[in-house]
Structure formats: C-alpha cells, structure tokens
Design the sequence.
C-alpha cells in the first residue's frame, strides 16, 4: 500500500457520503410507503422528475434551496398521482409504478430539451447553482474531517430525516397508524383509521423524498440534468428497503455501503490501466450483483408488511 | 363477450390517447400538428421500406411482449425482458461468430437456440431467487437487467471484441450461415418476423387450448385455489419464468441473426421495457399482442422519422417522447381496465 492510495481514501469517503445521500433519501421515502402497504416501483421516475424540477427551479430562481423545495413538491405530486391510481382506484401498484417510470423518462427528456433551448436562446446555459458545503474545512490540512463533515445542506438534512422517520414510525401514533394500515388494512379500517388517507399520505411522502433524492443529483453531485441520469438508483433504493429489512437504521447503513461502492468506481476508473474497458463495466455491475447476493442470503429472514402491494377496497 | 368488447374499446381508446398526447406535446413544442401527423404517417408506412422498418421494430416487441404476457398470466412479475433480451443477443452473437463452416440449416437454428437458452437461464436465476430464496422477482429481474447491460459491455470489449475494430467496442459479425434468410432482401425484412408471428400463434394455442396453459392461468389467477387443487404451483411458476425468458432471449437472438449481425457495447434499445407496455395494451392476450406490438413499433418509427424530418421549429424533435407516450398508454389502460376482481367475485 503506497501513499498514493492513502491520499485517495478521504476523497473516496467524501464522495461515498455524497453518493449515499440520494439512495438514503429515496429509500427512506420508500420505507414509509411500504410500511403503509404500497410498493412504489415508480421511485426511479419520481427521482428523475425531482432531478429536473430541482435543476429547473434552481436555474430559474437562482437558488439551490428553491430547487430542492420544487423537487420535493414535484415528487409529492407524482406520488399523489400514484396514490390516485393505486389507492383511489385500487389499480395494480407494479403496473402503475412502471408506467410512471416510462412517463417520467419521456416527460423529463422532452421538458429538459425545451428548457435547454430556452436557456440557449437567452445565450445562457441550463446549469443549476449547486449547494455549497455547510462547513468550510480545508481539505488539505484536515482530510479526514473534510471527508466526514464538509457536506452540503441536502446531506445534512438526510440524516435527521432518517432519524425522525425511524422514531415516528416506531414511537408515535401516526407512525403506528401507518404501520397498521400496511399490516392489516381491514382491521385498521374497523378501528376507525382512514386507510385511504394514510396510504395517500405515505405515497406523497415517498414521492417527496424521491424528488429530493433526485435533486441531489442535479444540485449537489452534479449541476446539470441528463436524460435518464438516475441510472437505476431508484431501483437500488428499492432493494435497500428489503436489504435493510424495513428498518431505517439498517437501510441507512446499507445506503452508505452502496454510496461507498459508487465512490470507489470513480476513484478506481482512471487507475485500471489497459484493462479498463473490461474492468470498469465489471465494477459498474458489482453493486447490482452484490444486491442480488445480499437479497439471496438475507431475504429469508425479512418479513415484509403483510398488506404490501395488496389494494384495499372497502365493502 | 361483452367483456371482450369492452377490453378492446379500452385498448383502442388508450392507443388513440397515446397518439393524441404525442400530437399535443408536439403542438406545445411549436410544431404544426398537421405536418407532424403527415411526417409521422409517412415514416411509419410511406412505402415498402418504411413499412418493413416498422415491422423490423415490431418483431422484437412481439416476441418480448409474448414473454411478458406468459409470465404475467402466471402471476410472475418478470420485468426483466430487457436483460433476457440482451443475454439472448449476446449468446447468439458468441455462437454465431464461430459457425462459419457449418451448413446454414444447422447454423441459424443453433444461433437462435443459443439465445433461447441464455434468456431462459437469465430468467431462471430470478426464478431460483424467488422460489428458493424468497426474493421478489419484481426487484431481482430489474437488477438482473443492469447486470446484463454490463455483461454485454464486458464481453464486447473483452472476449468477443472484433480485433479489426480500432475502438474494440463492437464484436465481429456472425457467420453468413448463421444469419436468418431474408424475406425481402431489398428491405432487410428477415424470417424472424415469421418466427415472431408463429410464436404468437403458439402462445395463443398453449394458453388457450392446452391443459398446461389452462393450469398456468389458474396458478396466476388464484394461487391458493391452485394449491388446493394440488396443482404444482412451484413448477408452473418456474416454467413461466423460463418460457418468458426464452421468448425474450429469442427476440435478442432474432435481432442479431436477422437484423444487426453484431453487438455493440451499448446494445439495449429498451425493447424489454416497451414489451411491458405491449403486453398491458394487449390486456395479456397473445392474439392482441400482434396489433399492440405494431402500435408501439409505429410510435417508435414515427417519432424517429419526426426527428430526422425537416420540420419548422428550431430544435430537433424529442425522441424521448416515445417513452412518455408508452407510459401514458399503460397508465390509461390500467385505469380503464378497472380495479382487479376480488377472489370469489365474478
């Protein structure tokens, strides 16, 4: 192990935490939705819409915070669309989620091209202002502190969000209501819980989280939108929920692990030498292979909410 | 009967809405709708070569759509047609390159068989994960899609790389003997289109008129009743996975052996995802998958035609519009189909 590799560790850790943030946000939203009995495959599309809405609002308003709020709002709106179909209409959740993914991929592509054209017509560029690091730490003098703490507002917001979600689900009355709706909607309904309202809220919350996760990609990790830039992150977030066995803390740890893998890819890519064309795709496949392996080894112990993916209709 | 008419009406309405959305967006983007419609029709069916281009897109959509249909009919949520299609193409390419000295009547079927087996194996992984390790196939098949994309990249840059290609990002072409015969050499229309139609007839006959087909549908419609009736639910579930993967793999192999002849590092065309829209629009009925595949193929060639057309309006026509139309059609079909029946409800 030479000094060169040691020098790379802090930047990899920094990038890993940054890369874990969108996964963590999206997975936390999915956790709440799944605890309420909704499987949202459309999380990938909601992230894409959040990424574009965030970039567009930040570009137009000149503020990254405005972008984040717009992204969460756009995600929540798509979440409500999902709820209209799956809760209000009791339609199949998987089909609805898939349709939302296709719709989002197409709609963001068309809209981004329009915004791009508008920006260029005003002799500008469609580039969003990025979030700045909240703590100014000199990376050269304190590399480890910088790697662990010099993060922007989205990353710092993600942490309390996970803690609050975990506490709310476990210890509060609304959290209990939500879980009851996911485990046994009939019983919850009999006990006077408004099942449809609870599930609709969960879908909107999941959408808002996915939207914010998308904003990470355009306001924190990079500063411009690209077609299909979520690149499967929504599906990885979906896997993290199962992998973390519907517990917020385990999900957070898993998200950090996957963020780290992503950071390692960036660090190692220029150092793969002549075999890069073969080794780099292998590295890109690794997170998915590991997810599959982890699911194969662990999912036997997991117990999903009993009412998961089953539409509930009164009557 | 009334149900069938209603289903047909719902699908027609959804398809019409898809076209309407496309026109509306084009209009919002500043393109004149009349010109858009004209160019669209021109690029879909204006002349024999345009028509055969549409049929060439419909062919893989038909095969992958049938695969999705068989799986969904058995209650297997195989979202992995894209990955199964890719490994099918990969295997067909790997085998087809080496069949130069073989007679065509062996080489071409062998190439297709390689794709069928590879697709079935890829789906079989998800089947094993579901049946032995209780991993939801919705997730495992999606994750396997991403693995398949990188597997193609690894093989194209590595073992299968064409030594003559400077970038080493394509494979060599498959042997002439391994290629599918052309129905019309001028338009590149290959025998795979006939194979796809035969597969549709076969899938219809299997699901509708055979005992295993009926049992597969029972397992999908009501697994509890199927178990009570002592049907081998596990066996049928595994069978549905394998059959659906085999059909998607065949689609990939047909595309290699009939259309492209070699692989590139970024080969996926998204047929495997469109296949789900095809199957949903057809309401999971094999005969209806033929027009549904044609419809989405039209959408694809039409929008690509618009992109290359010289329309008034500065920017190039957005091709991602195809995905939006697909998603819109699926959402609408899901809505119009009504909520699923409850067990015991007729």
Sequence:
């Amino acid at each position: 192990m030479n000094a060169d590799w040691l020098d790379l560790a802090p930047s990899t850790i920094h990038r890993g935490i940054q890369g874990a943030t969108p996964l963590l946000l999206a997975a936390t939203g999915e956790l709440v939705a799944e605890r309420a009995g909704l499987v949202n495959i459309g999380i990938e599309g909601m992230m894409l819409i959040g990424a574009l809405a965030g970039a567009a609002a930040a570009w137009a308003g000149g503020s990254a915070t405005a972008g984040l709020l717009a992204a969460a709002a756009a995600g929540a709106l798509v979440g409500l669309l999902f709820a209209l179909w799956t809760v209000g209409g009791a339609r199949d959740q998987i089909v609805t989620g898939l349709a939302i993914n296709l719709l989002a991929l197409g709609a963001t592509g068309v809209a981004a091209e329009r915004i791009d054209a508008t920006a260029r017509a005003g002799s500008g560029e469609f580039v969003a202002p990025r979030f700045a690091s909240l703590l100014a730490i000199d990376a050269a003098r304190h590399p480890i502190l910088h790697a662990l703490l010099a993060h922007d507002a989205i990353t710092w917001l993600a942490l309390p969000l996970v803690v609050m979600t975990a506490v709310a689900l476990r210890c509060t009355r609304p959290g209990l209501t939500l879980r009851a709706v996911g485990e046994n909607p009939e019983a919850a309904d009999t006990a006077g819980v408004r099942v449809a309202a609870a599930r609709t809220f969960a879908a909107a919350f999941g959408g808002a989280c996915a939207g914010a996760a998308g904003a990470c990609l355009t306001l924190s990790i990079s500063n411009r939108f690209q077609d299909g830039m979520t690149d499967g992150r929504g599906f990885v977030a979906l896997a993290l929920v199962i992998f973390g066995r519907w517990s917020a803390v385990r999900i957070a740890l898993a998200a950090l692990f996957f963020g780290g893998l992503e950071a390692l890819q960036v660090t190692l890519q220029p150092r793969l030498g002549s075999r890069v064309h073969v080794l780099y795709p292998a590295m890109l496949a690794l997170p998915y292979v590991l997810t599959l392996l982890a699911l194969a080894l662990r999912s036997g112990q997991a117990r999903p909410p009993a009412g998961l993916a089953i539409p509930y209709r009164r009557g | 009967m009334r149900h069938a008419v209603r289903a047909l009406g719902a699908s027609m309405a959804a398809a019409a809405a898809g076209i309407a959305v496309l026109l509306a967006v084009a209009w919002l983007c500043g393109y004149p709708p009349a010109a858009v419609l004209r160019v669209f029709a021109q690029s879909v069916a204006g002349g024999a070569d345009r028509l055969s281009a549409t049929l060439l897109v419909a062919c893989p959509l038909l095969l992958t759509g049938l695969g999705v249909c068989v799986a969904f009919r058995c209650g297997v949520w195989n979202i992995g047609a894209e990955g199964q299609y890719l490994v099918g193409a990969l295997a067909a390419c790997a085998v087809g390159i080496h069949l130069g000295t073989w007679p065509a009547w062996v080489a071409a079927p062998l190439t297709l068989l390689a794709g069928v087996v590879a697709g079935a194996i890829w789906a079989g992984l998800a089947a094993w994960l579901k049946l032995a390790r209780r991993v939801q196939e919705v997730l495992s098949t999606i994750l396997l899609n991403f693995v398949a994309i990188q597997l193609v990249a690894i093989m194209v840059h590595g073992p299968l790389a064409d030594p003559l290609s400077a970038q080493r990002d394509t494979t060599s072409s498959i042997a002439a003997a391994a290629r599918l015969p052309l129905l019309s050499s001028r338009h590149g229309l290959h025998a795979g289109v006939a194979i796809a139609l035969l597969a549709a007839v076969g899938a219809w006959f299997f699901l509708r008129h055979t005992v295993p087909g009926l049992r597969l549908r029972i397992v999908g419609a009501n697994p509890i009743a199927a178990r009570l009736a002592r049907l081998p639910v596990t066996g049928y579930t595994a069978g549905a996975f394998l059959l659906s993967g085999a059909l998607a793999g065949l689609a990939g192999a047909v595309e290699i052996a009939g259309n492209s002849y070699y692989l590139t590092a970024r080969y996926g065309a998204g047929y495997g995802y469109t296949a789900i829209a095809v199957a949903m629009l057809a309401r999971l009925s094999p005969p209806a998958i033929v027009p549904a595949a044609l419809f989405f193929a039209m959408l694809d060639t039409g929008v690509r035609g618009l992109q290359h057309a010289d329309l008034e309006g500065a920017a190039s026509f957005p091709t991602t519009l195809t995905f939006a139309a697909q998603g819109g059609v699926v959402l609408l079909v899901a809505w119009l189909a009504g909520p699923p029946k409850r067990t015991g409800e007729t």
